[in-house]
Design goal:
155 residues, mainly beta, OB fold (Dihydrolipoamide Acetyltransferase, E2P), 2 domains, four-stranded antiparallel sheet, 12 strands, 8% helix, 34% strand, elongated
Length: 155
């Protein structure tokens, strides 16, 4: 399946009232779902080697926020959260032998690089959306992250 066709399929399912969609051929299997319990991610499985068949994420469902989320109730931990804008692999440092971009206790400024998320062989810098102090790093280096998953708590 061509990438453009995959994007059209994602949009068609996203715009429809379907909550789940499955497509399967001999060499490709696609499963999509949407709703409160699913992330809306597309899973592509194939036994045939493909040169440009990336996994893609659909648009957020029902107003999910990307970027930063503020604590809204007294029961939640104080601070703001930097969330993953895409599905990929989280890297805390620019290279294996390099120091982490940030650690707990570091002061950060808006626009400062906090981490990298690798998606489709592209390295995407994750920048702070506000000034503050890193209170918590919520994911491990090399961990797979989902769209909207909290990565850092900043106070």
């Amino acid at each position: 399946m061509e990438f453009e066709n995959l994007l059209k399929l994602i949009k068609a399912v996203s715009d429809s009232s379907l909550t789940e969609f499955k497509y399967k051929t001999e060499d490709v299997e696609i499963k999509m779902g949407k709703g409160q319990k699913t992330s809306g991610a597309v899973v592509v499985q194939s036994d045939v080697p493909q040169t440009a068949m990336p996994a893609a994420a659909s648009q957020p469902v029902q107003g999910q926020a990307s970027g930063a989320v503020s604590a809204e109730t007294d029961n939640e931990v104080s601070g703001k959260y930097v969330t993953s804008p895409l599905v990929g692999t989280f890297y805390a440092a620019p290279a294996e032998d390099a120091d982490n971009f940030v650690v707990v206790g570091d002061k950060v400024k808006k626009g400062q690089v906090l981490a990298i998320i690798e998606a489709m062989k592209l390295m995407n810098e994750i920048e702070s959306e506000f000034d503050g102090e890193i209170a918590e790093v919520l994911v491990e280096n090399g961990e797979a992250v989902e769209y909207g998953q909290p990565l850092f708590r900043i106070i």
